[in-house]
Structures are given as structure tokens and as C-alpha cells.
């Protein structure tokens, strides 16, 4: 009799990067640690890759690491805040020192074969990039560009890689935090309507259908309640911060918002900490108010808790 050895099943791919115990680590879906990564202040994850900010003196770069082992996979010089995209691509901003782009107002991509291309160049001046988000295929990107230091003015732009066209989506100078639905057809964004106590900015959530340019108010902000930084959890639901002015102070948590009924559901145990959404996996990871990271599904049912983790980033979160 001949005995044929069977190979052990491959370990599930890591789907989360977070800090834990002073180190940055990748985690498998069951919560076990896959790899420890070099110290960094920003990270994203997708397929088998992690993109992290790195620096040597005054020189900034994005390092690409293997999510399973932590080993090096590549380096992008003069780069900042990389986003791991599908098909072996990584999007990134120019380095803050201005070597790649003195205007600090452009978006770049490293292709699977290592070639680097500029996706978008905006006018610069007093404006710089504030946030970026891609759709599920990375065909379309939306960026907020402006000044959130002293002028507090910003607008949103769309770049379509298939048509090679750039379009300005807002001109009110009060719009930021854009997010694309996974199919690339709808943008959700924050529109600021007032400055309130403690410098908090009252924010509406607006949905913009790109084919018709029709806008719809999903949540109305005021100096008693505000909704900054929305992103899609599914095609029909958003996750957003919610700020409430209670007892003379602002209290923040997360809410799930239906884009059809506008019904809002509080995300239990959430607070003002970092959150990450994966539309492809329909998962939300967030810092719990009591500490640690919790991962929930689209129904807000708990999937996993990492009691000592912080600053989660889920695979499939195509934002920076």
C-alpha cells in the first residue's frame, strides 16, 4: 500500500492591519497574527500586500510588504499614503517635501509591472490633497483638495481612468471626504454648513449620482448634530461619524445610514476613533470606545474582537 501525503490547507489571507502592543501587525480573519511590520504611521492592505509610509531622514517613501510574512515586495520613492488597489496596483500621493510634485496636489499610481504614472494633477496653490477614494475596480477615483489648516475651503474632483477625464464635482468650497460606491456610480461626501462650538463643523451628507449629477441630501447637519466622513458599507448603506452636542460638549460615535430610507442606526460600542470599511467584504472595523477593535458585518453583528488592537485598516478599504 502506498500512502500519499496530503498537504495542509493554506492559511487564510490576512484581511486586517492594525497596531497592537506598540507594533503594526497583519491579522488573519480568525484574529491570529500573520506578520509584524516595520514601524509606520499609515497603512493599507489588499490581496497579499500592505502599503506603509516609510522615511529616511527628510525623504518619504511607500514600502510594499507581504501581508503574510511582512517581507519586502517593493518601494515607491518620494511617495506618501499609499492605497493598495486591485490588480497589483498601488495609488499614492507625492511626498510632503515636494520632490515628486512641488504643488503637492497630484495623484499617482504604481502599476503591477512597477511603472509609475500620474493619474491626476490639480492646480495646487494654497490647496493640497486631503483625501482620496477609489471604486471597487479602481477605474474611478475621487479626491478632496483644499486647505483645512487656516482657510478651511475644499472641493471634490473625479478622475476616470478609462476615459482619462477629470471633472470637478463641487465648486462651493465647503465639500470634502468623498467616497465612491463600489460600482463607481455614486459619490457620498460631506458638505459643511456651519462652524459650531469648539470649532466643530456642521456637516450634511450628500449623495451625487454621476450619470445625472443629481444630488440628494441623506443626513442634515447642524450645530446640535453633524455627520462627517461618510463611506459606503454596501450599495445601499453608509457608515459615518455622528457628532452630537450634549451637555455642552461634543460626543462622537458611528452610525449606519440607509441611502433609500435615510434611517440611522447607531453602531454599538463605537466612539470617535478610527474606522475602516471593506465594501467587497461588507465589513466594518472600528476602535471601540472602551478600547480594542471590533469587526462587524453589514447587519452590525459582531464578527471578531481584538481587545488590544487600534487603528484598523481592512482589506478592500480603498481610501486614504
Architecture overview:
The chain is an all-beta fold and 320 residues long. The strands form seven sheets. Strands 20, 21, 22, 23 and 24 form a five-stranded antiparallel sheet that branches. Helices cover 0% and strands 57% of the residues. It has no helices and 29 strands.
Tell me the major beta sheet: 5 strands, antiparallel
Span between termini: 58 Å
Structural class: mainly beta
The arrangement of helices and strands along the chain is EEEEEEEEEEEEEEEEEEEEEEEEEEEEE
Strand content: over 45%
Q: Unreliable runs, pLDDT <50, ≥5 residues?
A: none
Helix tally?
0
Mean pLDDT score: 95
Find the count of extended strands (DSSP E, 2+ residues): 29
Rounded to the nearest angstrom, the radius of gyration is 20 Å
Q: Helix content range of the residues, please?
A: under 10%
Oligomer: single chain
**Which shape, going by the Cα principal axes?**
globular
Set out the fold topology:
Elements: E1 16-20, E2 23-27, E3 33-37, E4 43-46, E5 49-56, E6 59-66, E7 72-77, E8 79-84, E9 90-94, E10 106-110, E11 116-121, E12 128-134, E13 140-147, E14 153-160, E15 165-168, E16 175-180, E17 186-195, E18 201-209, E19 214-219, E20 225-226, E21 231-234, E22 237-246, E23 249-258, E24 264-266, E25 270-278, E26 283-288, E27 293-297, E28 302-306, E29 309-314
Antiparallel strand pairs: 1-2, 1-29, 2-3, 4-5, 5-6, 6-7, 8-9, 9-10, 10-11, 12-13, 13-14, 14-15, 16-17, 17-18, 18-19, 20-22, 21-22, 22-23, 23-24, 25-26, 26-27, 27-28
Amino acid at each position: 500500500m502506498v500512502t500519499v501525503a496530503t498537504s495542509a490547507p493554506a492559511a487564510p489571507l490576512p484581511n486586517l492591519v492594525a497596531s497592537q502592543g506598540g507594533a503594526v501587525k497583519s491579522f488573519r480573519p480568525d484574529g491570529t497574527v500573520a506578520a509584524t511590520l516595520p514601524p509606520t504611521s499609515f497603512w493599507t492592505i489588499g490581496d497579499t500586500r500592505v502599503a506603509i509610509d516609510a522615511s529616511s531622514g527628510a525623504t518619504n517613501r511607500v514600502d510594499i510588504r507581504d501581508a503574510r510574512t511582512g517581507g519586502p515586495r517593493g518601494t515607491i520613492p518620494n511617495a506618501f499614503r499609499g492605497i493598495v488597489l486591485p490588480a497589483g496596483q498601488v495609488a499614492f500621493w507625492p511626498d510632503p517635501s515636494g520632490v515628486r510634485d512641488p504643488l503637492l496636489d497630484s495623484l499617482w499610481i504604481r502599476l503591477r509591472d512597477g511603472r509609475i504614472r500620474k493619474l491626476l494633477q490639480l492646480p495646487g496653490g494654497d490647496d493640497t490633497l486631503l483625501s482620496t477614494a477609489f471604486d471597487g475596480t479602481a477605474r474611478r477615483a475621487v479626491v478632496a483638495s483644499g486647505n483645512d489648516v487656516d482657510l478651511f475651503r475644499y472641493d471634490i474632483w473625479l478622475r476616470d481612468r478609462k476615459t482619462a477625464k477629470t471633472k470637478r464635482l463641487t465648486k462651493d468650497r465647503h465639500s470634502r471626504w468623498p467616497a465612491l460606491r463600489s460600482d463607481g456610480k455614486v459619490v457620498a461626501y460631506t458638505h459643511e454648513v456651519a462652524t459650531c462650538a469648539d470649532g466643530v463643523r456642521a456637516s450634511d451628507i450628500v449623495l451625487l449620482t454621476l450619470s445625472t449629477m443629481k444630488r440628494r441630501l441623506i443626513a442634515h447637519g447642524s450645530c446640535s448634530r453633524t455627520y462627517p466622513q461618510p463611506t459606503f458599507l454596501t450599495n445601499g448603506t453608509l457608515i459615518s461619524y455622528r457628532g452630537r452636542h450634549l451637555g455642552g460638549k461634543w460626543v462622537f460615535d458611528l452610525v449606519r445610514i440607509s441611502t433609500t430610507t435615510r434611517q440611522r442606526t447607531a453602531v454599538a460600542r463605537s466612539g470617535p476613533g478610527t474606522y475602516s470599511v471593506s465594501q467587497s467584504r461588507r465589513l466594518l472595523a472600528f476602535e471601540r470606545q472602551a478600547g480594542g477593535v471590533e469587526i462587524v458585518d453589514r447587519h452590525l453583528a459582531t464578527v471578531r474582537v481584538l481587545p488590544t488592537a487600534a487603528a484598523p485598516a481592512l482589506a478592500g478599504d480603498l481610501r486614504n
